[in-house]
Every structure is written in C-alpha cells, then in structure tokens.
From TrEMBL:
Pathway: Lipid metabolism; fatty acid beta-oxidation. This is 3-hydroxyacyl-CoA dehydrogenase. One of its GO terms (biological process) is fatty acid beta-oxidation. The keyword Phosphoprotein does not apply. It comes from Alsobacter soli. CDD domains: crotonase-like.
Length: 697
C-alpha cells in the first residue's frame, strides 16, 4: 500500500482548507509537492469549492524546500509547477501562516493571492545562507510586493522578518486574530468577489534607483567571496528589467548554477553539522541537572556578558564581586548592556526592568550557596581560580555544577582544587558573551556526565551553540587559533605588514583579519599568556611573538589604548607607519630576510596550520568528530561558513594537497610543525576527516 499523502483537504463550507502535515517543519519534500498539486487541482476543478486556504499542521508553516533533496537529481513535480497551478487558479487562494514561512515555504505564500499571518509568525527567504537564491519565483515575486530595495535586503541577509514588519512592507495582506484559520477562511470568502490578485502580474512598485544601487553595493561589499548574495543582487536587478516569465527563467538558471556549487555543498554541511554537533554521542540519554538559579563570579566584561545571556533566558542570577565599588561597577556594566539593547530597539523598558528584577549583585560569596550552577568568570590566573574553586567546593550546595570560563587554563587542576571534581566543567563563552553563539563545554577527566550534560543544556537554553570537548591548552578554538596565528606572526617577520595579512585573510572570507581582531580583543591577554608559557616553551621552536611583545612594551594594547597593530582615530582603523617601521626593525634584529608578500601562500599556510592542529585534536580525542572543530571555527572565530570549516574544506581540497602544505610549513618553520600523524595516515590511505571515527556504513 502506498504511504498516505502529507497533504489533505478539509471542507469548510464552500472553502477548501488544504493542510500540509510533514513534521517536523513541513519541508517541501516530493510527497508534499505532489500532494499540494493534486489537492489544489482537485479544489480548482470542484465547482462546489469557491476559495482555497493553504495552511499547515504542527509547529510551523512550510519552512522551505527539503534541504536533503538538494544535490540529488530533481524529482517531479518541481515547485514552480505547483506554484503556477496555485497562482493560476481562478478561485482565490489564501496562505494562512503560523510559525516560520521560509524559503520555498514563503514562495508558496507569495504565489497565493493573499497572505494572512499569525502575529507571532515570521517570513523570510534564507536561501542565501544555503549558498543558493530562492528558486521558485521568490526573487521575482518579492520585489513585486515589497519593492526591489526591501526585497533585496531581505534576501541578501536571509534574515526572517516578523509578521507586522512584513505587512508594513507589503509582503503580507493581513495579521490574524487568535483564530488564524477562521480569519483566513473569511478572507478567502471575501476575495471571491474580486478577480484573483496574482503577484506575478503586478508591476514593480516605484522605487528609488540610487537607494537600490546603494543597497546593492553594500551587499556586494559584505559578500567577501560568498557567491549567493552576489547572485541575489543579479536576480533582483533582473526582476526590475524583465517580464515575470523571463525573470523566472533567469532565476532558475542561477539557482541551478548555485545548487551544485562547492559553496552550497559547504553551507548545507554547515546547516546539518550545526544540529548534529548538539547531539553528543557519549552523553546520549544522560539527564542534565535542573538549573533555575545561576551564580556568576566576576562582573568584568565576560561576567557581565554572561549574566545578561542568563537573564535574557529567564534565569535568576547572582553575581559576586569582591568590593562595594566592584559591585556598583558590575551592576552598571550589566545595566549598560541593557541600555544599549534598548537604544537599538531590541528591548523595551519593561523588558529591561523584568530582567534586572531577577539580578542580584553582591559582595557576599556565601550568597552562592543556594545556586544550581555557578560560572566563574574571574581573572585568568591559575592561583586566583584555584582559590575560588576551593571556596566554591565548600560553599556551593551538594549537586551544584561548578563551571569555569577559563580560555586556556587546565580545567582538571581547577577541578581538583574544588575537592569535588565530578561537579566541575568548563563553560568557555566568547566575548561579547551576550551576543556570541559559541560555548565550548569542557569535560574534565573527572567531570560527571550529568554535569557536562547540564552545561550543554544550559548553553542551548541561552540560545547558544554548545560544542563539547576535552581538556587541552586553549581547548579547540584557542588552540587552533594559537597555531595559525603563529603563521601570521611569522609572516610579519618574513616580509608582510599587518594590513596585508588581514586583507589576505579577509579575502579568504574571514569576518575580520587577525591583527584587527587582536586589536579589538586587547594585546595584553596574549602578552600575559606568552610570559606564562615562556618557561615551558620548546627552545627548538621558532618564537613569533617579538612584534607583539614590542607593541605591548610601548603600551599599544589595541583599540582600548587607541593603538595596537593599527592606529585608531575616532574609532576608525588606520595603518600606522610606526608599526611598519617596528615590524621591519624586528626582521632586521632577528636576521629574517623580508620576502615579497604572497597572499595565496599565506592563506594555504594558515589553512594547513588549522587542519594540522585539528588533526592532532581529533587524534587526542579532545573532540570526537571533525564537525565539532568546524562548528567551533564557524561560530566563534568568523571562519567563512561557505567554506564549511577547515576540516570540511580540507576534505574537499583533498588531504594529500593539504599535507603537502603542512610539509611546506614544517620546512619553513622547523620543530613543532611536523605533520600530524592522523593527517598523514588519512592522506596516504585515501581517508577523510568526515569518515574518520565513523563506523563503516
Ligand atoms: N529541509 C530538511 N530538513 C530540515 C529543514 C529543511 N528545510 N529545516 C529543518 N529541517 C530539520 C532539521 O535538520 C532538524 O532535523 P533533526 O531534528 O534531525 O536535527 C529538524 O528539521 C528541526 O529543525 P531545527 O532543529 O532547526 O528546529 P527549530 O525549531 O530550531 O528551527 C526552522 C526551525 C526555523 C524552520 C529551522 O529549522 C530552519 O531555519 N530551517 C531551514 C529553513 C530554510 O533554510 N529554508 C529554505 C530552504 S531552501 C529553499 O526553500 C529553496 C527554494 O527556493 C525552493
């Protein structure tokens, strides 16, 4: 017997209510497309039906094409065929939207004659994030409703738009009351009085050509190597010039070109890896502990950001500081973050007051006694942290999870100091902690599985992306960063200038060049770390910190001092000739020959350093899967999502080529740069990081 169709029709008098039911997100699988076409055609042919409503069961309207079908041969019927039947109907067709109408889902709605949405719904065309453009008329229909500028902004950012805003833009016709379906049926009946309003037949509303060109240039400037936003601009431009039919044909060609591209493949991988990374194999079935109250130790930049993230998620938060003055400053810092959120319109007065009503800032360490979980965000110093954990060990209640936000220090040593290491984990947030999505959940040698699962659950509750890893210096992200940043430091000594290195890596697709990032983060942190590691550094290895040390010795700590690798005037970054001189002097002093800068070689070396360190991390079992590493780089370090991540990209390039680059690194930089044994094995045996550690199918 054949499977029941995920699309059915329920009669509501003279209206056919066509319902899609394809959990979890009503993706437009082949069965859904077939069902929609059949039900729409039947309703159109049935003389007793006067109007149609398309609605969905479950948590959302159609959330888009079934991404799993991309990259495979297309299966009939295509979505455009379904939409042509829908839009061509002589009876009104209304979309009743709840949840998120995304991608192909919103394209279904755009092809209806009217759209009504629940006030909490949102709509969007996020295809650009999957490396493609809307492929079922979205690039041609959205500009006809919202105008080319608003349509371009929506498609180029891929960000969903809330129902109220979407209505203001002309993308929706009505916002429903509490009963969406009843309102949609009523609207459909009203429309039987008029001829159907077909989006494809509308003319592009008048718009400001200069404004469009400005929006287009800004999209192109932000694309940094990613193809899909560039193609969105092209498709919208065509919508302003061509007939709907010609525009649709052109859109189809662009879609077909992109969907099989390396970038789209990488972005699909990133989409699924982002979900997979949260399913930690060895924590399967482990129940997290209950968390309602959280303590935070330290109200500096990190502590305040963490407190805001916790408050935003509805938790009760107690922040501990060491003096009355620090308590006041801590409160101000947290309130300041909320003031900024209000200024940008992300939060209103009552939202701020409600959040602050759940916050206590205190000098009394004893107030942590009742907390379900405590996050230490104090000064990055082992003695300070051990002292805090020794006190926490006796103060915190039985079963409370004790987390350190250290970025580099040994979580096992900190855990031992508490006297109850099973309760201790690392929760490594990234700055600004209320914004950045990544959290490394660090599992110590003695951490109880429930404690780790609690860290993962808490991070998810904060809307963050938890990546679980083991203990090593710098964990996943900072350890890989330390490796490839050395390559960029060596490059300065060997002939490059900071702005050249930054430009090369930005054109590779990184959100920001490493020296600009260093200036933003503050050079003093790295300085302290280099001093701490000086005694244990392998004397055979090349040291790359001389330029940074000299900058720090001059008090050039980055943006906060107005000077670092660059000079800052009115917050604007500028190349500083004094830095160029300093860099050249360091080369002379170290007797390094300055060679002409080769951007391509630098990029290959940076990637090789990342992959080599990643291979070591995998072999040491710090993480179980290559995708864990990729997700850390994508969500915490501005690595271009359209490359998938360094490990994914290495597989795509071919491991023998990457190994050759690592050998070049080794030859150039000597001890410490030997190829990782796992990389050598995989490269020589035709293996891949994707398949590594996974049982053969
Ligand atoms: N295709 C296939 N599977 C999908 C999917 C899609 N479009 N969207 C979500 N899923 C899957 C997820 O992989 C996940 O599966 P697992 O439980 O096995 O991990 C499950 O559905 C639930 O998804 P989330 O965990 O993401 O659930 P959420 O509630 O947090 O978010 C969502 C829901 C906002 C819809 C989010 O899933 C999302 O953004 N999905 C992608 C939407 C999208 O990009 N649509 C455009 C597709 S391209 C297109 O439509 C092209 C075209 O022009 C025809």
């Amino acid at each position: 017997m054949s499977e029941p169709s995920p699309v059915t029709t329920r009669r509501e008098g003279d209206v056919a209510l066509i319902l899609v039911d394809n959990p979890p997100v009503n993706a437009l699988s082949q069965a859904v497309r077939t069902g929609l076409l059949a039900q729409v055609s039947a309703a159109v042919a049935d003389p007793s039906v006067h109007a149609l409503v398309i609605a969905c069961e479950g948590r959302t309207f159609i959330a888009g094409a079934d991404i799993r079908e991309f990259g495979k041969p297309p299966l009939a019927p295509g979505l455009n065929e379904v939409l042509a039947a829908m839009e061509g109907s002589t009876k009104p067709v209304v979309a009743a939207i709840h949840g998120t109408a995304l991608g192909g889902g919103f394209e279904v709605a755009l092809a209806c004659h009217a759209r009504i949405a629940d006030p909490k719904a949102s709509v969007g065309l996020p295809e650009v994030k999957l490396g493609i453009v809307p492929g079922a008329g979205g690039t041609q229909r959205a500009p006809r409703l919202a105008g080319p500028v608003a349509a371009l902004e929506m498609m180029a950012s891929g960000k969903p738009v809330k129902a109220i805003e979407a209505k203001a833009k002309g993308l929706l016709d009505a916002i429903s009351g509490p009963d969406l379906r009843a309102d949609a049926i009523a609207l459909a009946r009203e429309l039987t009085e008029k001829p159907p309003r077909r989006t494809s037949q509308l003319i592009i509303p008048p718009y400001d050509q200069d404004e469009f060109e400005k929006a287009a240039s800004s999209v192109l400037a932000r694309a940094r190597g990613q193809l899909s936003p560039v193609k969105v601009v092209e498709a919208v431009r065509l919508a302003t010039r061509l007939s709907f039919e010609e525009g649709l044909k052109a859109e189809r060609a662009i879609f077909a070109e992109l969907v099989g591209s390396d970038q789209a493949r990488a972005l699909r991988y990133a989409f699924f890896a982002e979900r997979e990374v949260q399913r930690v194999p060895h924590l399967h079935g482990v129940e997290p502990r209950r968390v309602d109250t959280v303590g935070v130790i330290g109200a500096g930049t990190m502590g305040a950001g963490i407190a805001v993230a916790l408050l935003d998620a509805g938790l009760r938060v107690t922040v501990v500081e060491t003096s009355t003055q620090a308590v006041g400053a801590g409160w101000d810092r947290i309130a300041g973050l909320y003031a900024r959120a209000m200024k940008s319109g992300r939060l209103d007065e009552s939202g701020k007051d409600e959040r602050l009503s759940r916050l206590t800032v205190t000098e009394d360490f004893g107030d942590l006694a009742g907390m379900d979980l405590v996050i230490e965000a104090a000064f990055e110093d082992m003695a300070v942290k051990k002292d805090i954990f020794a006190r926490l060990g006796t103060t915190a209640r039985h079963g409370a999870v004790l987390a350190t936000n250290t970025s580099y220090l040994d979580v096992n040593e900190i855990a031992e100091a508490s006297g109850r290491p099973a309760d201790v984990i690392g929760l490594h947030f990234f700055s600004p902690a209320n914004i950045m999505r990544l959290v490394e959940v660090v599992e110590g040698a003695a951490s109880a599985k429930e404690a780790v699962a609690t860290g993962v659950a808490l991070a998810k509750r904060l809307g963050k992306l938890p990546v679980t890893c083991g203990v090593c210096d710098g964990f996943v992200g900072n350890r890989i960063l330390a490796a490839w940043r050395q390559v960029t430091d060596f490059a300065l000594e060997d002939g490059a200038l900071p702005q050249e290195v930054d430009a090369a890596l930005e054109s590779y697709g990184m959100a920001m060049g490493p020296f600009a990032v260093a200036d933003l983060a503050g050079l003093d942190i790295g300085w302290a770390r280099r001093k701490r590691l000086a005694a244990t550094r392998d004397p055979r290895g090349r040291y790359g910190g001389t330029v940074a040390d000299r900058l720090c010795a001059q008090g050039r700590f980055g943006q906060k001092t107005g000077m670092g690798y660059y000079r800052y005037e009115n917050g604007k970054r500028q190349v500083d000739p004094e830095v160029s001189d300093l860099v050249e002097n360091v080369s002379t002093e170290l007797r390094r020959k300055r060679e002409p800068f080769d951007a391509d070689r630098l990029v290959r070396r940076v990637r090789a350093a990342m992959v080599n360190e990643g291979a070591k991390i995998l072999r040491e079992g710090i993480v179980a899967r290559a995708l864990d590493i990729d997700m850390v780089l994508l969500h915490g370090y501005g690595f271009p999502a359209w490359r998938g991540g360094p490990m994914f990209e290495a597989d795509a390039i071919g491991l023998p080529a990457v190994l050759a680059d690592v050998r070049d690194l080794h030859q150039a930089y000597g001890a410490g740069w030997e190829p990782a044994p796992l990389l050598v094995e995989l490269a020589e045996n035709g293996g891949s990081f994707a398949a590594h550690g996974r049982p053969a199918a």
